[in-house]
Amino acid sequence: MDLLTFARGPALQWSVAIFFLGVLWRLFGVFLLRRKKDYSKPRSTHLWRGAVKGLIVHLWPYKEFRPKVVQSYILGYIFHIGLAIVVFFFVPHILFIKNIIGVGWGGLPNSFIYITGAVTIAALVAMLVKRIANPVTRLLSNFDDYFSWFVTIAPVVTGLMAAAHWGGRYEHVLAVHILSFELLLVWFPFSKLMHTFFFVVSRGTTGALYERKGTSA
Amino acid sequence: MAKDDDKEQTLGEVLRQQGVSRRGFLKFCATTASLMALPPSMVPAIAKALDKALRPSVIYLSFQECTGCAESLTRSHSPTLESLMFNAISLDYQETLQAAAGTAAEAALHDAMKKFHGKYLLLVDGSIPVKDDGVYSTIAGKTNLQIMKEAAEGAAAVVAVGTCSSFGGIPKANPNPTGAVSVGDLMKSGQIATKPLINVSGCPPIPVVITGVLAHYLTFGEVPALDVHGRPKVFFGETIHDRCYRRPFYDQGKFAKTFDDEGARSGWCLYELGCKGPTTYNACATTKWNGGVSFPVESGHGCLGCSEPDFWDKGSFYAPLSTGHWGTAEGIAAAAAAGAAIGIGAAAMSRRHQDTISKEE
Amino acid sequence: MSGLSDIGVKVEGDSEPEDGPTTRIGNALPILHEIETYLTRLTQGGEPATIDLRAMPLAPGDYETLQRLLGEGEVSATIDALGPTRVRETAVRGVWWVTHHGATDEVVAEFIEITRIPTILQTVDEDLVDGLSRLRECLAQEGQAASD
Q1: Mode of pairing for the β-strands spanning B197-200 and C95-101
Q2: d(C-alpha A19, C-alpha B331), whole Å
Q3: Which of A192, B30, B180, C120 has a 20 to 30 Å separation from B246 between CA atoms?
Q4: What ipTM did this prediction achieve?
């Protein structure tokens, strides 16, 4: 069995199985936790409105924090949107997804995808530099942060390498690209990458809590 | 079959004897250079080398194969050139093409192997079955493995013609009932002598690629530069996708979705219809088939990847290259159920833990 | 069947010859640019050059586009050696189209040569020597016949 067949076959099956196992484990595990009862008198009962408000308000930093964090927000948006474009609008990726869920959609021209990929990488690198350069974030960072960064950037880098026919024979680079994505799948449920699912819930919960307490935002 | 007495003549002498003029020879050399994918500026050097080249003895053995490779070779687009190629070599044994049969044919094989020991070029098409002592394919009471072992012993070099002898091909396809292996596998496992090996893969290989490799060996007397799979780089150096005239459509994101839609009619990229061009190394896009008329992608069908190892076992010919090979949905469902169960269990444990703590308080 | 030319082939995508250079994809224009480079070199006293058309990934219509744009010149010749070889100068002087045919007239190789005169038309030194000796033999025989 060559590397590409392994990457597209058994490795893919196992990594997807582990991904689903892990994600459902974490989701059930967290959602079924007993939450402490709040005996205080609610100032507002529009909790859902608070949750939605929390989601919207937290899309952009508060005025007070803006000078300090706005750069990180911008970089974060660039690479998240970049990733979404590359993952969901590159035709071979759409075909990959269509093969699984049976639904496909129109893709974007490859040249646009390549540029987006390069911008995404630049943003990710800039974020890492910022993280290391700042003594506080450096102190706060652990293996999870660095490895999650690595498994995020690796598929983009290897994908661009495959597209550019650089770094070896195409089928090998393609196999490494698929394997790097599978590493992302396996690492995902057990790391901070779970924020993909949790960020909505946590921001919503916070928003609802603030609403109940009657705080400004 | 060629006569024995002209074995030591140079190719130039042979051709002149046959009344080939110097312009004819130059034409032959220009065509040969074109065949070998060499730049036209090399024609004078080729003319010089071919003029002095000796005619090598060639033994062509067929094992588990369909004769498609020999068919392809004998249909190389130029009868003139092909006959010249076959005058340039002394084809001493080829089951399908030789007039001799039975014991006479076997005798010819053994004579050639003895007379040109260490000097003959061995062409092999078909894979070699090794399961159950190789009983699944025998010729004149000998297994293919035995014949291959004897023939490889005295060969100057071996050319594996076709995907079967290069990589195992269709006989080796899952579940490989005969234990078929390639010539290279036999060399690696030490079952036959290790000799310089050129894999000319393809199902069948492009005729001019076969003759081009022979011409190269004849001109330079050595094995050409090879890729990781032992194939000549001049023909297998680039993918079908890289040299495909439909490549611009791939880059623009214009794809045919079915074999008869507007995209297919406009000649758009066949990636979504399962074309294996991006992972297939061969010269089809440049050399084309049937005398340069067309090649599969040009006639509207994606590349099957027939020149790659195990092409038969790499999933559907019509599944896009980027799709995965899924086992069953049950596996994922089971994993999801297990994950949910663990999650529920973890939450339950946590709750019980909370209860214990609150009781203690 | 005597050859591939007997099979009717309809080439699609080549139906707009009036609109000038039409091949948006394909290699006709890059090849013309290559010819331009070689021709420039030749006018500046450089070496002749040859392009192997078989080594080019040609899109359907490319070949016809090349022929149409290069046009037909005033010189054409046929060499009868191992099947016919047709040599003709295109309307672009100094650019020659050389087609080698096999014994049954099928095309075995095809080149575009950028030169004053293609090599295959020129007489090589060995042939000059052979020609001279043939002529002398002929003269000697005639002289003998006259003196008899």
Answers
A1: unpaired
A2: 12
A3: B30
A4: 0.77
Report helix, strand or coil for B94: strand
Mean pLDDT, chain C, integer:
83
Question: Which residue type, as a one-letter code, is found at position C80?
Answer: D
Chain C interface mutation, best of B13, B23, B241, B288, highest count of C Cβ atoms under 10 Å:
B23
**Model pLDDT for residues A89-132, shown as the tens digit of each residue:** 998 899 888 887 888 888 898 889 999 999 999 999 999 999 99
Which strand (E) or helix (H) includes residue B345?
Answer: helix B329-360
Tell whether A174 lies on the interface with B, counting CB pairs under 8 A.
yes
- Residues in B closer than 8 angstroms to C16, CB to CB, are none
Say if B42 is an interface residue toward chain C (CB within 8 Å).
no
d(CA B330, CA B333): 5
Question: Is the confidence at residue A13, as pLDDT, over 80?
Answer: yes
CB of C77 within 8 Å of a chain B CB? The answer is: no
Pick the residue from chain B with its C-alpha nearest to A5. B314
Per the structure block, which two tokens stand in for B217?
A: 């060996």
Q: Do B326 and A99 touch (CB under 8 A)?
A: yes
CA distance A171 to A148: 26
Strand runs labelled E in B176-313: 180-181, 197-200
Q: What is the pLDDT of residue B6?
A: 44
Decide if A75 touches B, using CB distance below 8 A.
no
Whether residues C103 and B80 touch (CB distance < 8 A) is answered with yes
